[in-house]
């Protein structure tokens, strides 16, 4: 019997690589909240100059195809929202998942940095 083992990149390594890519493109990235190194869920706060933010959250597992099992997929939870709305959402999420990561990104476009599902 043959088994296919799926390995996803550790959260700490993914965040490190993402922040490096953002800096390489002239943007800014910072870890706002450090979660579990190996498998913490990652939330991305994209901040804009007008003070609004877009929040990308881990996509539900049901959205993963067989070929995407190793990839981290994100979905847009808030788009150009007030920071306070995103703060409230993250506070609620932390109650259920104290191991989550929050990464702040200041870059105009992140579409080619991470996989975003519609």
Concise synopsis of the structure shown:
With 118 residues, this protein is an alpha/beta fold. The protein has helices at 11-24, 83-96; strands at 28-33, 42-47, 53-58, 73-81, 101-106, 115-117.
Regions with pLDDT < 50 over 5+ consecutive residues? none
* Helix content range: 10-25%
Strand order of the largest sheet: 1-5-2-3-4-6
Beta strands, count: 6
- What Rg do the Cα atoms give? 15 Å
Largest beta-sheet details: 6 strands, mixed
Q: Can you tell me the CATH architecture?
A: 3-Layer(aba) Sandwich
Mean pLDDT: 88
Secondary structural class: alpha/beta
End-to-end separation = 36 Å
Description:
The chain has 118 residues and is an alpha/beta fold. The protein has one domain: Protein of unknown function (DUF1491) (hypothetical protein tt1805), CATH 3.40.1530.20. The chain is built from two helices and six strands. It has helices at residues 11-24, 83-96; strands at residues 28-33, 42-47, 53-58, 73-81, 101-106, 115-117. A hairpin with a 5-residue loop joins strand 2 (42-47) and strand 3 (53-58). The model has no long low-confidence stretch (mean pLDDT 88).
What is the fold's blueprint, element by element?
Elements (H helix, E strand, L loop, with lengths): L10 H14 L3 E6 L8 E6 L5 E6 L14 E9 L1 H14 L4 E6 L8 E3 L1
Parallel strand pairs: 2-5, 4-6
Antiparallel strand pairs: 1-5, 2-3, 3-4
């Amino acid at each position: 019997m043959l088994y296919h083992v799926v390995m996803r990149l550790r959260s700490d390594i993914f965040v490190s690589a993402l922040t490096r890519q953002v800096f390489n493109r002239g943007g800014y990235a910072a870890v706002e909240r450090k979660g579990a190194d190996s498998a913490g869920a990652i939330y991305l706060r994209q901040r804009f100059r007008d003070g609004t933010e877009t929040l990308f959250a881990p996509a539900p597992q049901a959205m993963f195809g067989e070929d995407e099992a190793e990839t981290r997929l994100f979905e847009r939870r808030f788009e150009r929202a007030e920071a306070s709305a995103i703060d409230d959402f993250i506070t609620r999420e932390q109650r259920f998942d104290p191991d989550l990561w929050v990464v702040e990104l200041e870059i105009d476009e992140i579409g080619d940095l991470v996989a975003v599902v519609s």
